[in-house]
Design brief:
The chain is elongated, with a radius of gyration of 27 Å. Strand 5 (125-133) and strand 6 (136-145) form a beta hairpin. By secondary structure, the protein is an alpha+beta fold. It has 9 helices and 10 strands.
Length: 328
Amino acid sequence: MVSVAHGRSLPEVLTAIVEGIAKCPNVVLARIWLLDRGDLCDRCRFREECPDQTRCLHLVASAGNPSDPSQSYSRLDGRFRRFPMGIRKIGRVANTGNPLLISGLQGDEDWIADPGWVRRELVRTFAAQPLVFRGEVLGVLAIFDSGVLGEPDFEWLRVVADHAAVSIANARAFEEIGRLRARLEEENDYLRQEVNEVLGSHGIVGSSPGLRKVLQQIELVAPTEAPVLVLGESGTGKELVARAVHDRSPRRERALIKVNCGAIAEGLFESEFFGHVKGAFTNAVSDKPGLFEVADGGTIFLDEIGEMSLDLQAKLLRVLETGVVRRI
């Protein structure tokens, strides 16, 4: 039985699975593809065959024993890093949820994408099992073997696939818990700051016609989902207006995130506002939610936007227009 990793990192789990299988006798190559969004459609070799470019199978783990020691079977950027759903053997296993075992390969079968590789590596068997968790197909586990596998071997692979699917689902759950914990920690920091500031604030005080008009506008716009532009010189109370809009909105139970845009270094802009994933750059040692993600469900107050470069302002405007944020 292949030992499935108990680690919580999904890449570690995936790597442990294929490396464990690759240690078995006669295994030439072991790979895992997982369902994810369509992302390389413009340069995918299967684009003309792809029935649905919204999602496809992503190659996420690979290990094996190449006959040429200079080659590496751990690469994930080769010709078969994506498979459309329902296309070729891998895509059909994912689409139908049915396993596939083909033994006695000669290398001249018309469905083989790389006959030269099959003959060179003496591959005799192709086997693929769907990765299924609670009735949902997560992806496909496939092996290329130099032996002729039978039903007992295929059943063994089924057991491995079942354990792998559970491990993948658990790893994803741990990652989601980590993401939510990070967001809550960020949000709590802002909430503590807000409490300290609100306790020392008397809010908006005054009865002039101009102030009454501002309060009327706040009452009108606060219940809506519309972005609000607050204009005024420094010290005129823009932040108090933002607080009043937030407190009168359906979002008042969540955080009001206040950001001094002019104080954020240009090189840190995307990471601070949009967040980043682990490994996105040198110092990205863990996933980090951006300010927009922390403010999701609440309100974000962007102060001193005019202090930013026009290029950065355009990126903020794009997010405000679409409501879509993607971590770097």
